[in-house]
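wait is this the right file?? whatever heres the structure
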């Protein structure tokens, strides 16, 4: 008979040795033509890579195997991933490694600020691994990074893509007090899929986080994203849109889930470009200020261009009001 102690010990071993975690083998499907991208290698791509390396930083572009890295880094767009490269959770869709993270690098916020200034970024996205081991979930580190960017590159607008800070009282308030221009937290999938896809998260806790961010500072843009292709229905996706709008989310991103390895969740199907456009039309009709919906859409893909449109959309909305 398996006791609670035995199960806890097994979970701890899995966290220390994520490579031994038992996951079903799911063969990777061949991608349709509309998802193919060119291999990176331009001069600007290599320059961006050199600056990231010189500052000893991590990017979600690399750690999560983003298909848009060649295009974004060529344009000198990078999403910095702070607080290390090891996550305390093991979501079934994510390629970031899982384990016991190391200590925070106290100099990291300054390094990020320096890299942003050297790259000359007009808009930057800062995300992180989940740090459930920290008392504040890393909220103060986010705030310090925001302040460092403001000091090093005053003209840069800042978007944060944060964890859910589950059971970390006061963490969200610390991040919002640092005044990011955009607060992003991804719902990722429909509620029915959470136990399988995001077992460490809670759908309504994530939804409430987005709502609270808007309540704390109504001037902050809020943003959230969904993956499709995990077995959700069109009706479930539309219900999540309604939930986001009830939480006053301004910007929704919708993209195709791409399976990182045979040990990750299997793809149920590839949604077509026409279906993504249909979702975009529905989202706009539901009142989102900004919608990005395509097979290769990711949370931070073309984030700078999208922010400019988002700001313009708000100004137009206020004029109509």
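ok assuming it is, sequence goes like this
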């Amino acid at each position: 008979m398996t006791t609670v102690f035995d199960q806890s010990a097994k979970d701890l071993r899995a966290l220390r040795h994520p490579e031994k975690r038992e996951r079903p083998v799911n063969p990777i499907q061949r991608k349709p033509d509309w998802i193919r991208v060119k291999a990176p290698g331009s001069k600007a791509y290599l320059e961006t890579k050199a600056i990231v390396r010189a500052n000893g930083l991590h990017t979600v572009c690399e750690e999560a195997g983003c298909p848009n890295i060649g295009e974004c880094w060529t344009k000198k767009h990078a999403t910095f991933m702070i607080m290390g490269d090891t996550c305390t959770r093991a979501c079934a869709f994510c390629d970031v490694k899982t384990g016991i993270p190391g200590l925070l690098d106290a100099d990291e916020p300054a390094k990020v600020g320096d890299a942003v200034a050297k790259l000359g970024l007009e808009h930057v996205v800062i995300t992180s691994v989940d740090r459930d081991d920290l008392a504040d979930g890393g909220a103060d580190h986010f705030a310090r990074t925001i302040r460092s960017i403001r000091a090093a590159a005053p003209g840069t607008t800042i978007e944060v893509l944060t964890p859910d800070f589950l059971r970390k009282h006061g963490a969200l308030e610390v991040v919002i007090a640092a005044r990011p221009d955009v607060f992003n937290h991804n719902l990722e999938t429909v509620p029915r899929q959470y136990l399988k896809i995001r077992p460490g998260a809670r759908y309504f806790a994530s939804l409430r986080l987005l709502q609270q961010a808007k309540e704390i500072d109504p001037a902050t843009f809020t943003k959230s994203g969904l993956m499709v292709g995990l077995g959700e229905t069109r009706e479930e996706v539309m219900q999540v849109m309604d939930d986001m709008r009830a939480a006053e989310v301004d910007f929704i991103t919708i993209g195709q889930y791409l399976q990182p390895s045979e040990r990750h969740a299997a793809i149920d199907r590839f949604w077509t470009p026409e279906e993504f456009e249909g979702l975009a039309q529905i989202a706009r009709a539901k009142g989102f200020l900004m919608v990005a919906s395509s097979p290769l859409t990711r949370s931070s893909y073309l984030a700078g261009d999208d922010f400019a449109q988002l700001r313009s959309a708000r100004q137009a909305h206020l004029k109509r009001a």
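The chain has one domain: 38-320. so i think its the right one actually
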